[in-house]
Amino acid sequence: MVGKDNMRPASARIGGVDWGVVGHRWAVELLARQLARGTNHHAYLITGPDGVGRQRLALALARAVLCERPPRPGDSCGECRACEQVGRRVYPDLHVVERADDRQGITIEQIRDLQRQLSLAPLAGRARVGILLEMEKASEGAANALLKTLEEPAERVVLILTASEAEAVPPTIASRCEVLALRPVADEEIEQHLMARGAEAKAARQAARLAAGRPELALRFLDEPALLARREAYRVELADVLGMNLAGRFVQADAWKDDDDLEERLLAWMEGGRAALRGSLADGGAARSAEMSGVLDADAARRLLLAIVRTLEGLRQNANVRLALETLMLDLPQARARPPEARRAAG
Predict the structure, then answer these.
(1) pTM (2 decimals)?
(2) What's the pLDDT score for residue 78?
(3) Which of 262, 264, 243, 241 is nearest to 252 (CA)?
(4) Same domain membership, residue 230 and residue 86
(5) φ, ψ for residue 161 (rounded to 5)?
(6) What is the rounded CA–CA span in Å between residue 147 and residue 221?
(7) Confidence band for 303, pLDDT divided at 50, 70 and 90
(8) Which partner for 305 in 70, 273, 296, 324 could form a disulfide, CB atoms 3.0-4.6 Å apart?
(9) DSSP letters of 26-61?
(10) Residue 275 lies in domain
(11) Which one, of 331, 322, 329, 325, lies nearest residue 300 by Cα?
């Protein structure tokens, strides 16, 4: 079966195969091996948190499928017409489906158009590849329409779906795909990649730490210094909120109820919670990051993350903002007192 980024960091090299993906060695190795052996699946579902590299891996797989001059089976050259055009998403046999700006998700009309394209013989290459981004946001009609394509796959067609998690898409869709669940990438690996792109060591370290295992977010931080500064401030702010009494927290909730950047603030808090959890598990109970050092143990970090997730879900379903924030303040764990040296490091 079968189905540009010019910079290819050393961190992505696996057995001589380099797809330009930061981290996720196991996924690259698995896919390259399947392509080399002709045992690849007709449909894949790539899952993971935003910014972890789902779209980058999807395009890398498309390049490997469509490459005109692969240096070895299962690899891509990164230089041929197909590789270059796939990177720019303009190759005639590549079909990328994503939510339009004025829509909440992928529509049934988009799926039907994709099905018409996939039913035709390849125009330029040996296969057609369809990439469907954020499949969890597809309408029910779109998901049902796609199901027929998954149940009756055409020859020389590879479908690549992305979503936040397999459980976020209908089980009838997920069960017909090979699921590749991407996990956060080590900070050190992200930092090395950023430095390979020319970032200074201090900036690379800060961006990698705040990205919480998500290489694409780290790249955004370098491109948007203001975003990096806000995320840093929000994470320091989280430690302060956790140390407040309930009255103080409610004052903050009232101040933030009309904040246009509320979702960004909560996402930054989630990054802080993830970092605290990873650090507490690694160090046997105490969070490693400076702003959260000694504030949360692993159980408290988990409660923090669950509270933020529930709040984000409620806000995205048009819940009352003030009520959602007050509920969050009630659910947030209480911080332990930080030692003076931790407060100095965070400040």
Answers:
(1) 0.79
(2) 92
(3) 241
(4) no
(5) -105, 150
(6) 37
(7) very high
(8) 273
(9) HHHHHHHHHHHHT---SEEEEE-STTSSHHHHHHHH
(10) 224-346
(11) 331
